[in-house]
Amino acid sequence: MGYSIVSSLKIIDLKIFNIYGLGGPVASFTSKEKNNWNSSITDIEEFSDNMKTAQWSFQAGGGIEIGKFNLDVRYSWGINDSSTKLERVNNNLTFSIAYKILNL
After folding, report:
1. With bands split at pLDDT 50, 70 and 90, how would you rate the model's confidence at 31?
2. CB 27 within 8 A of CB 35
3. Where would I find the Outer membrane protein beta-barrel domain in this sequence (predicted)?
4. In whole angstroms, what is the distance from residue 5 CA to residue 99 CA?
5. How confident is residue 99, by pLDDT bands cut at 50, 70 and 90?
6. For a 10 Å CB count at each end of the chain, is N or C smaller?
7. Which has more pLDDT, 94 or 85?
8. More confident residue, 14 or 86
9. Cα separations in angstroms, 65 against 6, 13, 52, 99
10. Closest Cα partner for 5 from 40, 55, 57?
11. At CA 49, angle to CA 89 and CA 74, rounded to 5?
């Protein structure tokens, strides 16, 4: 499970198509029984333990909107180790195609 706070900026805004850039932080959490994210956040110690196991990264990319279709590419740079035993950082390249159902 991951959460991101990504800001986008329209570079070209035309009626036919739009080109945009985006960037921001991303936090990914492993879904386990130990991580009880649905409980109240009043237990600061439990919340702190869950945050220590999160994988943090920074994401940047861009895309194009053509009508109701989106084509998007993003690269994510890992900030912390994804595994303390292997000492590896989580870097990802993501391509996506989307179709807008609602125009909100």
Report:
1. low
2. no
3. 27-82
4. 21
5. very high
6. C
7. 94
8. 14
9. 17, 9, 37, 10
10. 57
11. 35
Backbone angles phi, psi at 98, to 5 degrees: -130, 155
Q: How confident is the model at residue 18 (pLDDT cuts 50, 70, 90)?
A: very high
Radius of gyration (C-alpha) of the chain in whole angstroms: 17
Q: List C-alpha distances in Å: 8 to 72, 86, 88, 94.
A: 12, 34, 29, 16
Phi, psi (degrees; rounded to nearest 5) at 23? -175, 155
Tokens of 18: 């739009």
Tokens of 7: 């800001």
